Amino acid sequence: MKTFRNVLVFIVLLLTLSFSCLPAFAAGQVNLNTATLEQLVELKGIGEKTALKIIEYRNEHAFASVDELVNIKGIGTKTLESLRDQLTVEDPQKKS
Q: Quick one: pLDDT band at residue 73, thresholds 50, 70, 90?
């Protein structure tokens, strides 16, 4: 019985650690107004150059909508639609 309990505790611990190691974006959506270069590059279809363009765009004016992503050279409606579920736009000044 003690061995069974030890195995059960080990499995629960292993599962807990596995879930805590998931990438940040897996738990939710990437906020275009606060995402790091690394977070943007993790998105399928977004390379480093495009990620830098996204950051440059938002430095000029914050994203009001995910739809504004098509204003970035290299991102068309097809790419936008493939990314839409992974993205969100929240006000970077908003206090939680």
A: very high
